[in-house]
Amino acid sequence: xxxxxxxxxxxxxxxxxxxxxxxxxxxxxxxxxxxxxxxxxxxxxxxxxxxxxxxxxxxxxxxxxxxxxxxxx
Length: 73
Description:
This protein is α+β, with helices and mostly antiparallel strands and about 70 residues long.
């Protein structure tokens, strides 16, 4: 069985703005589909420790942050 990663790169606004409580400081900038073509197990291992254990994973078992953008919820 194959393993896929679906997700987005988000950018965080680092300046004060007036917004209501339902807005997020995070904004979806780019779908990960644009960065790779198909399954890339060495990237999966490097980022998440999945399918390739030759790397120390950067983001193993983190899940989504509590304040993700509306686009991801």
